[in-house]
Design a protein that fits this description.
Elements (H helix, E strand, L loop, with lengths): L1 E7 L2 H14 L5 E7 L6 H10 L7 E2 L7 H19 L3 E5 L3 H12 L4 E4 L11 H12 L2 E4 L2 H9 L6 E4 L3 H16 L2 H4 L8 E4 L3 H4 L2 H15 L4 E4 L2 H9 L10 E4 L4 H10 L2 E4 L2 H9 L4 E3 L7 H5 L3 E3 L5 H12 L17 H9 L1
Parallel strand pairs: 1-2, 1-4, 2-3, 4-5, 5-6, 6-7, 8-9, 8-11, 9-10, 11-12, 12-13
Helix pairs in contact: 1-2, 1-7, 1-16, 3-4, 4-5, 7-12, 10-15
């Protein structure tokens, strides 16, 4: 019997883990222990995802919560170590580039438990990003490196990573897009609830530290979005970190403005909002890919992206948020861009990444 401990903690990881866990739990001779660090802990950011994604309740909910990077990662490391000592898994499986990812990998490697990293090899080459530090260190600590794209494989080879075995498996997010995309059309009623017309609004999501933690960036983004909203409705599910940044910068959204702020939504509702948007404006790695999967043009409010294929395909475009004028102009310009190259969508695999990962783990 193969025992695998899966460590998750943040909303994007729940989506990725759902696809792999479904295969793990249907495979004979494999036991999965699900560990939720509690990095995302409120109902809209955590509980609803477990329900909608059909993920069983975590075997361990560590309840770490928020904090500075060092404090949060340290508390996770200590708690995960306790779980691993008790469960003694054969593998520890981690996803992406959050503090939960790094803590899970460090706890395992210190106990000489092999680590498998899903989404290995992504690079923004920006060491100011906490995510870049997390993903590079996790790759160095991993024994199995599951790369989603050829570019990710080349990044790992160029860095001379030999102790891990690199496998090009495709993107588990594409697995999720195929599986849950049809479910959203059946079970989500958010368009009716918010009185939205398909292709009649822009969907925006902002949460990355390089935007929320810098006053100039957050002000440029929201003042630009308010100008855009004067001509076409903009819908913004607001991340807790972003809400705090708005309050700290005294950014008040006029009630009469068409910039509509709502609480974070569940995964099926988010998929429905993405599929029916005219344009998506985001700094999220996951959302920019989902835009690509659902054939919706996307503006990425960042200096760089780890998903370079999206920009190379001309489906997504990078827009550093230098000023509200830049944000407003680039959003409007993107509304009239020609369609990108959809033939390159297969760069993310065929929707069978989870099955390949489980096969290799066995």
């Amino acid at each position: 019997m193969l025992k695998i401990a899966t460590v998750v903690g943040a909303r994007p990881q729940f989506i990725k883990a759902a696809t792999v866990s479904r295969v793990l739990r249907s495979t004979p001779d494999i036991t999965e222990i699900l560990v939720h660090t509690g990095q995302h802990y409120d109902a809209n950011m955590s509980e609803v995802f477990f329900q909608e994604l059909e993920i069983p309740p975590p075997d361990y909910h560590l309840g770490i919560g928020s904090g500075t990077h060092g404090a949060q990662t340290g508390r996770m490391l200590e708690a995960i170590e306790g779980v691993l000592l008790e469960e003694k898994p054969d593998w520890v499986l981690v996803y992406g580039d959050t503090n939960s990812t790094l803590a899970g990998a460090l706890a395992a490697v210190k106990l000489h438990i092999p680590v498998a990293h899903i989404e290995a090899g992504l690079r923004s080459f920006n060491w100011q990003m906490p995510e870049e530090i997390n993903r590079v260190l996790t790759d160095r600590a991993s024994n199995l490196l599951f790369a989603p794209t050829e570019v990710a494989v080349e990044n790992l080879r160029r860095e001379g990573i030999h102790q891990g075995t690199i496998h090009l498996v495709g993107d588990v997010m594409y697995d999720a897009a195929l599986y849950y995309g049809s479910k959203a059309a059946i079970y989500s009623f958010i368009l009716k609830h918010l009185n939205l017309r398909s292709k009649g609004y822009i969907l925006a999501t902002i949460h990355r530290a390089e935007n929320t933690d810098y006053s100039a960036n957050i002000q440029a983004i929201f003042r630009g979005l308010m100008q855009v909203a004067a001509e076409i409705p903009v819908l913004l599910p607001l991340h807790p970190r972003t809400r705090k940044a708005l309050e700290q910068n005294n950014l008040m959204i006029p009630v009469s403005n068409c910039l509509q702020i709502i609480e974070p939504v569940g995964y099926l509702d988010m998929v429905m909002l993405e599929k029916n948007a005219r344009l998506i404006v985001t700094d999220s790695g996951g959302v920019q890919k989902e835009a690509f999967f659902y054939r919706v043009p996307c503006v990425i409010l960042r200096e760089e992206t780890e998903w370079v294929e999206l920009v190379q395909s001309r489906w997504n475009r990078l827009v550093p948020p230098k000023s509200d004028i830049v944000v407003r102009c680039e959003v409007f310009n993107s509304l009239t861009l020609p369609d990108g190259d959809l033939n390159s969508r297969t760069v993310y695999g065929t929707g069978q990444a989870a099955k390949q990962i489980v096969k290799i783990l066995k």
